[in-house]
Write a structure and sequence with these properties.
The structure holds two protein chains of two kinds. Chain A is of the alpha/beta class. Helices cover about 35% and strands about 15% of the residues of chain A. Chain A is elongated and about 65 Å long. Chain B is α/β, with parallel strands linked by helices. Chain B has one domain: TIM Barrel (Alpha-Beta Barrel), CATH 3.20.20. Chain B has an eight-stranded parallel beta barrel with strand order 1-2-3-4-5-6-7-8, surrounded by seven helices. Classes of the chains: A alpha/beta, B alpha/beta. The complex binds iron/sulfur cluster (2 copies).
Chain lengths: ~230, ~300
């Protein structure tokens, strides 16, 4: 899931100030905390109030989309409203906001949120954790399943650095664990320090450079769909 | 490694088996580096080389290359060009090493570098394209094979440098630190320089454990110029604790001696009482190749501290 944070209301208001009719689109997809129809309504009320305070009348409608990052779903759900509204405010992550802008070329969609990271939900610790940074070259097989790219503050491939103290990381004031000490301890537990000792050569960052190449994945889905149709 | 020639005076002296001393210079937010030049002059007689730091604690400072060069040129003191991988990708690291070789730098200390979030430009994008071990690997390519990381040849001239790496005697769990150092040595380090140590038994243990790599070790020591620095170190440098007696004695001076001159004398005495036997013991009973003395802005201590070891 994608961890998001609502932008300051003033910042959102600044974006939509030039418009008097806006559509507020929630997303029922994976964004956390959830930003669905209720959140869209609350945002609408806040923006209306803010407009009133500035002597403006704002007309708005709240709705929600199953997944804004899917062009078919987002397209079919949002399109019926487009004629009535001048602009869209999206409560999805950056993927959803971008998707709406790309499929609706004649309408501007503005982000109501800041997207933080892709996360795993860790109920045990009551936390969301960024366990992967989609680096294109998975090292988890050498690191006992703990990602040095996402979980080490410096993304080191041959850690730990000199900044760890008693297993805690210098970044964030020694509050968070040093990923490389976690890796060391877990490899040691499995008697696999041979993997710790291994030198990992410089990474090929072309594999991590944006934009990501989505057409490959699309090809897979098409192929699977075709297979299913044939059956 | 081991078969790389000694290019620098530092490495040559280490190879002859001499117990060496190095110093440290810390250029900061400055354009005029005369203060650095003066410090270098003051320590020149006592050390074989001086490290020039590269934005310690993530701070935005003058780069370390130009001061490294100017100290060699103007003072005639060899420098150890400290380089972190925090601010430069492999292209920039390569370019800076070529530039350093071009102006006659013979030592580089390859470091990770404190994260920029810790410094005074906290929103900066930290680079870490290579980590410090991969940087040592790049240096090996440049020095031993005359190429960049991808094997593209360096067209004219040669990079003749010796490569130092860091190790932290205060790190816990220690085995992780020892193994990490081993990984770096295997990739191509010429010597190991440790962070500051205050506990003699611990330091001896650490040196003993590192000795398995057959790579010369310089033990880092940090003489304490006043109580403020000592207590700052104790409180704010994580993982480092200054021995209680040392702290107490320095505090006593601060409280009870008002005369500046007298105070200096007493502070020096305290440091000498602590560090002279410390160095003696390291020299006598460990395999350490020398001491890296981080007496930044405290050059007056070099003479009394090191005279018996020269
Ligand atoms: S190494 Fe880390 S960032 Fe890269 S794919 Fe694996 S889990 Fe993701
Ligand atoms: S302390 Fe550990 S997690 Fe933090 S940057 Fe260093 S190696 Fe990475």
């Amino acid at each position: 899931m994608i961890i998001t944070k609502l932008k300051d209301i003033d910042e959102i208001y600044e974006m939509i100030k030039p418009y008097s009719k806006i559509l507020i689109a929630g997303c029922d997809g994976c964004c956390q905390p959830p930003r669905s129809i209720n959140e869209a309504k609350v945002l609408g009320q806040m923006l209306e109030l803010k407009s009133k305070m500035n002597g403006k009348k704002l007309t708005w409608k709240a709705m929600t989309v199953l997944r804004q990052c899917d062009d078919r779903i987002a397209g079919s759900t949002v399109r019926p409203y487009l004629d009535e509204y001048e602009a869209i405010v999206s409560l999805a992550c950056g993927l959803g906001v971008s998707m709406l802008n790309r499929i609706f070329e004649d309408t501007l969609t503005f982000p109501a949120q800041d997207s933080m990271f892709g996360a795993s939900e860790n109920h045990g610790d009551n936390r969301y954790e960024q366990y992967c940074d989609t680096c294109g070259e998975c090292l988890l097989g050498e690191t006992a399943g703990i990602c040095p790219v996402a979980s080490c503050a410096k993304g080191l491939h041959n850690g730990p650095c000199g900044g760890q103290v008693d297993g805690f990381c210098e970044v964030g004031g020694y509050k968070y664990p040093c990923a490389w000490i976690q890796i060391y301890e877990r490899l040691k537990k499995f008697n696999r320090l041979d993997l710790f000792n291994k030198f990992r050569p410089p990474k090929d960052y072309r594999l991590m450079t944006s934009p990501g190449h989505l057409e490959l994945i699309q090809e897979y889905t098409n192929a699977i769909e075709e297979e299913e149709v044939e059956k | 490694m081991g078969d790389r020639p000694a290019f620098s005076n530092l490495m040559k002296e280490i190879k002859t088996g001499k117990f060496v001393f190095t110093g440290e210079l810390e250029p900061t937010k400055m354009v005029d580096i005369s203060e650095i030049i003066h410090s270098a002059e003051a320590m020149k007689e006592y050390v074989v080389a001086a490290n020039v730091t590269d934005g310690p604690q993530g701070m935005a400072y003058i780069n370390s290359l130009i001061p490294s060069y100017l100290v060699q040129e103007k003072v005639g003191l060899e420098t150890v060009y400290q380089m972190t991988v925090r601010d430069r990708n492999r292209i920039a690291l390569f370019g800076d090493i070529l530039a350093a070789a071009c102006v006659g730098i013979k030592n580089v200390l390859a470091l990770t570098g404190d994260h920029s979030a810790l410094g005074d430009n906290p929103g900066a994008k930290s680079v870490y394209d290579l980590d410090s071990t991969q940087f040592v690997y790049l240096l090996g390519k440049m020095i031993d094979e005359n190429t960049d990381i991808y094997g593209n040849e360096i067209e004219t001239g040669k990079v003749e440098m010796n490569v130092g790496i860091a190790a932290n005697p205060n790190a816990s769990p220690r085995e992780a630190e020892i193994l990490k150092v081993g990984r770096k040595v295997a990739v191509g380090a010429d010597y190991i320089q440790t962070q500051t140590a205050f506990d003699i038994d611990d330091a001896k243990d650490f040196i003993k454990e590192l000795s398995r790599y057959n790579c010369p070790i310089l033990l880092g020591l940090f003489p304490l110029k006043n109580y403020g620095i000592a207590s700052y170190f104790d409180k704010f440098i994580p993982g480092v604790s200054v021995p209680e007696d040392l702290l107490k004695n320095l505090k006593h001076v601060k409280k009870n001696i008002k005369d500046k001159k007298e105070r200096k004398v007493k502070i020096d005495e305290i440091n000498l009482e602590f560090f002279v036997p410390f160095i003696r013991e390291i020299k006598k009973s460990t395999a350490a190749a020398g001491i890296h003395c981080m007496a930044v802005h405290y050059e007056r201590l070099f003479e009394p501290l090191l005279k018996e070891f020269r």
